[in-house]
Amino acid sequence: MVRTQQLAVGIRGESRTWLVTGVAGFIGSHLLETLLRLDQHVVGLDNFSTSTQDNLNEVQATLPAGQWDRFRLIQGDITDPATCATACADVDYVLHEAALASVPKSIEQPARTHRVNVSGHLNMITAAQRAKVRRFVYASSSAVYGSNPALPTREDQPLEPISPYGASKAINETYSQTFGRAYGIETVGLRYFNVYGPRQDPQGAYAAVICRWSLDLLNHKRATIFGDGKNTRDFCYVADIVKANLQAATVENPVAIHQVYNIGSGRAISLLDLHEMMQALHPNPSGEPDLLKPVFKDSRAGDARHSLADISRAQQFLGFHPRSTLEEGLRSTMEWYQHSRFLTPVMA
Question: Which of 76, 184, 202, 297 has the most Cβ atoms closer than 10 angstroms to its Cβ?
């Protein structure tokens, strides 16, 4: 708590301009809300291909009067170098979140994944370097590790991605570190594990498990588990992801820069146990326990069997310490979906 307060005070004490790519997305909208609450100026870049104006509307509705005026939206695409250059002009920090963040979709569309995730990343870091931004913080992924059996996963373990999405993030890390050596731009990469929380889109075939199951349970539908349910994941609440980004952007220790960090909770849970926990948080009011038993389907290509982050490096160099327990995060997430636009209306 003390570290979080110190971080907030430090950022609020010096008004800067931040560029958030993918600003209308799940993580991007949370970054926007936090930065505006800290009295920062924010430029947002989004093409709205996988995000929604609804997220921005919600941020605006929750802010005190006047804070929204510090936000400027650019509707554009990171695959366009000119748009990236415009977005980076007069910016102090870049938080690069925009991507096609789906393992299954990358299996189906590898070329599109490369164009958005790799070429888009190269466009953004080139524009940031030319604009002389203070620091470029970018979202990587635990997908870079693939199915490496060593757990917990450390940053120095081999990168063995098993999907085009994981490969795209590994390439982005190489580009970022190369740009640091070649051009001197300060970069920090964050290897997200499984992020969840309010505003995550639960619709579509590739929705993340917690948001999808939240909606299923609230609509009294059976959840789908791909595989036997014994596969494990490290789930990290979105508020902790936001904190990691702000710490990465503002850390002063030079040793902490030009590095990549695991960002997760440091704890793993099986999908079977996760389903049981979520069902306990939202019991079936019909009294028919069989109704909400999960449906099992074949495992999906590109999905790792287990994931668990070793976050000791982020703790040491960034001061990153997740605050949210899984139960707290699940409760907050499910409460949000209960009043969200995604919930099926109950017919009278």
Answer: 202
Chain-centroid distance, C-alpha 82: 25
Tokens 């695991």 belong to residue: 262
Say if residues 105 and 62 touch (Cβ distance below 8 Å).
Answer: no
Contacts of 43 (CB under 8 A, 6+ apart): 17, 18, 19, 20, 71, 72, 73, 74, 87, 91
DSSP characters over 239-285: HHHHHHHHHHHH---GGGSSEEEEES-S--EEHHHHHHHHHHHS--T
The predicted structure's pLDDT at residue 348:
33
The tokens describing 46, both together, are 């989004």
Give catalytic residue positions.
Answer: 165
Rounded CA-CA distance 97/279 in Å is 31
Distance between CA atoms of 110 and 171, rounded to whole angstroms? 14
In this prediction, residue 81 has a pLDDT band, given cuts at 50, 70 and 90, of very high
User: Cα(50)–Cα(57) distance, rounded to whole angstroms?
Assistant: 16
Residues making up the chain, counted from first to last: 348
- 3-state SS of 120-177 is HHHHHHHHHHHCCCCEEEEEEEHHHHCCCCCCCECCCCCCCCCCHHHHHHHHHHHHHH
Whole-model pTM above 0.90? yes
Instruction: Tell me what pLDDT residue 65 has.
Output: 87
pLDDT digits 0-9 by tens, 266-313 = 999 999 999 999 999 986 555 555 557 899 998 888 788 889 999 999
Q: How far is CA 260 from CA 117, 121, 189, 317, in A?
A: 17, 15, 4, 11
- Angle, CA 95 vertex, CA 116 and CA 23 arms, to 5°: 70
Angle (nearest 5°) at CA 75 between 70 and 80 = 125
Report the CATH superfamily, name and number, of domain 2-194+237-266+308-323: NAD(P)-binding Rossmann-like Domain (3.40.50.720)
CA angle 102, 261, 321 (to 5 degrees): 105
Peptide bond into 104 cis (omega under 30): no
CA 56 remoteness from chain centre: 16
> What confidence tens digit (pLDDT) does each residue in 171-218 have?
999 999 999 999 999 999 999 999 999 999 998 766 789 999 999 998
